[in-house]
Amino acid sequence: MNMLFMNAGRLRTELKLEALQPQEDGIGGYSESWQEIALIWGQIRAITSSSRFLAQRWHPETTHRITIRYDAIIQAGMRLRKDNRIFQIDAIQDADETRRYQICFVREETT
Questions:
Q1: pLDDT for residue 29 is more than 80
Q2: Separation in Å, CA 53 to CA 46, 50, 59, 109
């Protein structure tokens, strides 16, 4: 097995982990409310950047790879926030299956 050698000092970007907390609206639907559940440190690396034309408008999309210390509470569907930037978690990988680091594959939500 290949072990990932990571200098923990590179995990210096402060990120807020948020989970969706749906709020009932009283008529059978719900509104989205994101609640901060943890503060973690990571390293952000851009992977791709592209733009698609949908609904008469250009939609930029940037994907990133965020390396963090292993934490079992992190799941796909949650999101990470750095200041005004929002990263939607699409997939999570245990970097070398030793439960030391995780790699989150994310999409940056842009307007």
A1: yes
A2: 21, 10, 6, 15
Gap between the Cα atoms of 109 and 63, Å rounded: 9
Q: Residue 73: left if φ>0, alpha if ψ -120 to 50, beta else—which one?
A: alpha
Percent of the chain with pLDDT over 90: 59
Q: Which among 68, 70, 107, 104 is positioned nearest to 86, based on CA atoms?
A: 107
Beta bridge partners of 62: 49, 108
Asked if the model's pLDDT at residue 1 lies above 60, the reply is: no
- Per the CB < 8 A criterion, the answer to whether 66 and 103 are in contact is yes
Tell me which residue has tokens 């940037």: 62
CA distance 13 to 29: 36
Separation of alpha carbons 28 and 59, rounded Å: 30
Give the rounded distance of the alpha carbon of 54 from its chain centre.
23
